[in-house]
């Protein structure tokens, strides 16, 4: 898609973000691929676009928290924290116990910036837990470890 290529061009980046936001959830998979890019500016543009798409992006975006690419996991946790859906926040908590230090650090840093989200976590926990499939025991355990419960 040409709009994705425009994310790499500084002069066309803002227009590309605006157009991709209008496309919405249909652009999420392409944006996830861009989050693997080596260029921080390009990853940041994709992350901003996903944030602007918001809740419709969350469902298609959750699986990226389990990707082998640490940049993708870091960016995913940050975007999900900023969107602040219960389902997204459940996976941000899981990032707090990621095997990679940088993923854990970025998740913690992003959550510290979203103080309101942190303060409401205990009351949101049942709703967040309900978003994780019942047969996904490993994810449920990591969710509780991330919250410290």
What labels describe this entry?
mainly alpha, 149 residues, 10 helices
Question: What is the topological layout?
Answer:
Blueprint: H1 2-6, H2 13-23, H3 28-34, H4 40-53, H5 55-61, H6 70-83, H7 86-95, H8 101-113, H9 115-130, H10 137-147
Helix pairs in contact: 2-4, 3-4, 4-6, 6-7, 6-8, 7-9, 7-10
Describe this structure in words.
The chain has 149 residues and is mostly helical. Helices cover 72% and strands 0% of the residues. It is built from ten helices and no strands. It has helices at residues 2-6, 13-23, 28-34, 40-53, 55-61, 70-83, 86-95, 101-113, 115-130, 137-147. α3 (28-34) packs antiparallel against α4 (40-53). The radius of gyration is 15 Å and the shape is globular.
Number of E-state strands = 0
Q: By helix and strand content, what is the structural category?
A: mainly alpha
Shape: globular
The major pleated sheet works out as: none
Unreliable runs: none
Indicate the percent of residues in helices: over 70%
Number of DSSP helices?
A: 10
Assembly status: single chain
Using the CA coordinates, give the radius of gyration.
15 Å
Distance between the termini: 44 Å
Q: Spell the H/E element sequence.
A: HHHHHHHHHH
Arithmetic mean pLDDT: 82
Percent strand: under 5%
